[in-house]
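anyone seen this seq b4? input:
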Amino acid sequence: MSRRKLYEGKAKIIYEGPEPGTVIQHFKDDATAFNAQKKDVIEGKGVINNRISEFLMLRLGEMKVPTHFIKALNMREQLVKAVEIIPLEVIIRNVAAGSICKRLGLEEGQSLPRPLIEYCYKNDALGDPLVGEEHIFAFEWATPQEMDEIYSMAMRCNDILSGIFAGIGLKLIDFKLEFGRLYEGDEMRVVLADEISPDSCRLWDRETQKRLDKDRFRHDMGEVAESYQEVARRLSVLP
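predicted toks r here
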């Protein structure tokens, strides 16, 4: 069956969906880091991320966080609602790691006084630069009302996901979310979109501090597939 490809990103391909207002999200095994300067293929990563993201999107949906997720179609694909992606990456940080340490001279692993939310303008050519709300409103990437909704949804996701991961012995260090505008008739609402997986979350084992996320690929730590499998196994989404 030939399908119309709408978009191909670093980790996913978006195809036209079977009904109007739907698209198919296909998870690839490709891994990229440092704005795609580093690339590789990690066998089975797409399958694991699909299963983890399905599980977490369903849990968030049960907790009344509106998402684009409809259902899993197979091992690698999900049916999701078509949304207009808001061009922002929303980063929620609980513990200092990654770029914030370089920017602010923080020690990696240092707990932050409260969860911090940062926004990056989604633009690969520019390296997804950090922006503030003033930029967001000036360039009309989102309205003040949308940003209020995004902020409260992001904080709610942080509470729910931190609890889920704590229950399986993992610490949610930080994670990235994306949101989209869902148009239904005359109604427009902001919903959680994209994926939630070890590609978009930093997850450390609570006991050993072992990293079970994309940092293993970024920093050549090895055992990338095994670490993703470990997260899936603890969530009971893979045998």
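The first helix runs from residue 45 to 62. The first strand starts at residue 5 and ends at 8. kinda curious what u guys think
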